[in-house]
Design goal:
By secondary structure, this protein is mainly beta. It has two domains: 1-31; 33-195, Exo-inulinase, domain 1 (Jelly Rolls, Sandwich). The protein has one helix at residues 2-23, and strands at residues 34-37, 45-49, 54-56, 59-62, 67-71, 78-86, 91-96, 110-114, 143-151, 154-159, 162-168, 178-183, 186-195. Strands 1, 3, 4, 6, 9, 10, 11 and 13 form an eight-stranded antiparallel beta sheet that branches. A five-stranded antiparallel beta sheet has the order 2-5-12-7-8, with no helix packed on it. The radius of gyration is 20 Å and the shape is globular. The N and C termini lie far apart (47 Å).
């Protein structure tokens, strides 16, 4: 009886440990993440500008015009994961804490840039006018992932698993997030966010 009880307890410990490892990657449960875009609709977004956003094969993409998809919800402290594809000549970005959602610029929000050919080191992986990156990583022609954290004045950007920005800046405290199309072909296929 003692042997059976010991075996049962051991199996339960193994099962709970395996379950905990499976549901908490990086210490976070997936339940904490909210999917803002999953390839099916743009229900969580407002369109600003004249970019020709369209849903195609599970992605939202644009190749003409200039504009944004702006989240309907504002965020203060958060982490966002964005999967994107751009052609080598594209100009795009992920905007954070936008204070004027109808007139978005890199001065009224944080712009985590997606542009490979910008000469001033505020290209892909950088936050425009806040944190430069050298050398500028290249995003063109492949799927990429941004993991961006804004917690108080602490901002971090991770591009394809490599930290490109770790900076303190307190210009912008809260606001919606935005996905930009300014030039070239730009695609987004998954956007998730969680409040901190």
């Amino acid at each position: 009886m003692k042997r059976l009880l010991g075996t049962t307890i051991s199996l339960l410990i193994v099962a709970f440990t395996a379950y905990g490892c499976a549901t908490e990657p990086s210490g976070q449960t997936d339940a904490a993440w909210t999917t803002l875009f999953d390839g099916r609709n743009l229900d969580n977004w407002n369109q600003v500008g004249d970019a020709n956003w369209q849903l195609v094969d599970g992605v939202v993409q644009a190749d003409k015009g200039s504009g944004f998809l702006v989240s309907k919800t504002s965020y203060t402290d958060f982490q966002i994961r964005v999967e994107f594809w751009v052609d080598p000549d594209a100009n795009s970005g992920v905007f954070l804490r936008i204070s004027e959602p109808q007139k978005i610029t890199s001065t009224n929000s944080y712009e985590v840039n997606i542009v490979d050919k910008r000469p001033d080191m505020y290209g892909t992986g950088a936050i425009v006018n806040v944190a430069k990156v050298s050398p500028v990583p290249q995003a063109g022609g492949k799927w990429n992932t941004y993991e961006i954290t804004a917690q108080g004045s602490h901002l971090t950007v991770t591009f394809n698993g490599t930290r490109t920005v770790d900076v303190q800046d307190s210009k912008h405290a809260s606001g919606p997030v935005g996905l930009q199309h300014a030039a070239g072909l730009v695609k987004f296929r998954k956007v998730q966010i969680r409040k901190l």
